[in-house]
Specification:
By secondary structure, this protein is mostly helical. It contains 23 helices and six strands. The strands form three sheets. The protein has a two-stranded antiparallel sheet. The chain has a two-stranded antiparallel sheet with strand order 3-4. It is rod-shaped, with a radius of gyration of 42 Å. The protein folds into four domains: 141 residues, no CATH class; 126 residues, no CATH class; 95 residues, no CATH class; 202 residues, no CATH class. It is found in: Cytoplasm, Cytoskeleton. InterPro entries: GCP (IPR007259), GCP_C (IPR040457), GCP_C_sf (IPR042241), GCP_N (IPR041470).
Length: 595
Amino acid sequence: MPTRALAARMGTTASVPERVLCIELCGALQGLEGTYFRKDSHGFMRVMDSCSLSQAQRVTVESALSIANLYIEVARVSPDRPNDLLAKAFLLESQTILEEYVHDVGDVPVNCRPLTVLRILSAMETWRDRLTTLQRLYKLRNDSGTRLMESIYAVYSSVRECYVVDKVLTCCAGVLCRSISRWMSGFELSECDSQMIATDPAQGYRLVWIPPFFPKWIAEYILKIGKSWRSVDLRRSSENLDKARAIIASQLDSKCLYLQSQRYKLEHVVREVCRLVCGSVVHSFVVDHHLLNHFDAAHCLLLLHDAQFSLALYRQFCECTHGLRSKLSQRDASNALIAAAASSTTAQRLNFPLNLDALSSVNDTPNTSSRLQFVQPLRPVYRPKGPISDIFRSTENKYESLFHFIWPLEMSLLSISEHANAVRQTAARMSRSSAKEFVKSLRLTSALLSCCERVLLRIRVYAAEVVDQFFKRLRLWIDDAIDLDAVVESHNNYLDGLSSAFFLNNETEDIYGLIMSILQISHELSKHCLEIITETESAQQMNGNDGSSAHARNTYLFVTQAKLQKILLELHSRINDLNKQQSNSMLMILLSILE
């Protein structure tokens, strides 16, 4: 008798009925205590000493209890994460998996007949891997939802199926899919619970997280679509918007977000919805808000591509400054711009009002000897009304710099033209008895003015050609634009291209300086022109022969001639070198002009 009891304790003889043991083991797999299985101080299931099992039974039961303890360890974690939808989805889906485990344990007595310990273990062995995977994922439960999703996707494999990872990832992707669907369907960001997109007053809507399972361009398309809803005309574009919502509702699901085999569905959805929603915005801007006409107005007025406007503005300046002899006040500059805009043929051609403003510093024009004193204080700003204004608001400084390049050319050309005519008229009135030195001064002055006029006129032709070519490119870029961001980018590229062609960047600032030097010489010649004419006419009336004055004047003109020749040679050489580096068609135009 003692020998038999010892054998039972050592596990060589079973004393517990098989069916009773199996029923209690099923309860233990669900975390329920019984006669033979109890929880220890750590809450894990253990075999009671009173449970006499054979060696084979004990090994099988211990193996089954290890599955039960995995379940207990995972199930004891609270699923409460209300503030992070992705983390909450992960925990709730984990609870669903645990409920499936409990349900499968409950079905064991029905499905495994006759009921044995070995059959129970075989039926539940699949759950060992599942609970082990879930236990490992649970270690990440305190991470943010986005970090958690990245980690889950890192262990996901599209080749080898993993039940737990697939279910959890599908659930989390479902939350993300609902958020993306609402955002692309025109809901406000606060209604979307978006993990990808945030907004702030400074930067507006922006991407803060890109899911690891699709490329950046898809995330950018999603952002563009939602942003475009804020600009689209709901009444005019209702048909396209309804189509877009129908596509999202019928074709976008969680699996197409992360399954590589279904990536084509996601790409098709974002492209088609972008075409419908963003394309409606671009169409509305071009057709309803006359976008290209606004660009045309800006490049005609602010870049002074309107001869009538240029002439009217120059005459207003001359009137306000007594022939460009006095300083130009802020009020006079504003009035001059307004009056010139009113006489513009462009303003009469376009079917919407043109707004042109002039902003300068509080002080009057700086007291300098350069004609640029009438340009630098001016800041023409094109401010159309409506949604178009947002496109121009961020580019005011670029338009200003372009204005400050072209308007000095216009002023110098108009001024030189006036003074050249005056010199020719004076020369025609002079008698043959006039002093040779004065005649020589007039001829040399006329030659220098003509040279400056030809050079500046050809640079002006180059500028006009550059503007025309880039404006044609802008129209093509707008035709290809798929959304408002592409329109804004096209506009910026257009202005950047003009700035580069006008040598307003750091790499070509020396060329810009040479052109400004030519303008300065033109200004000085125009300034001295009236003095020469006055002296010549006085000498003719008095029949005098102030040779020393004329000689000094001629010396100045010869020095100016040498300076101008040097600048032109240096300008040609520098542009030629730049053309060899860039092989730019625009530079070829300028080189042919300077030849």
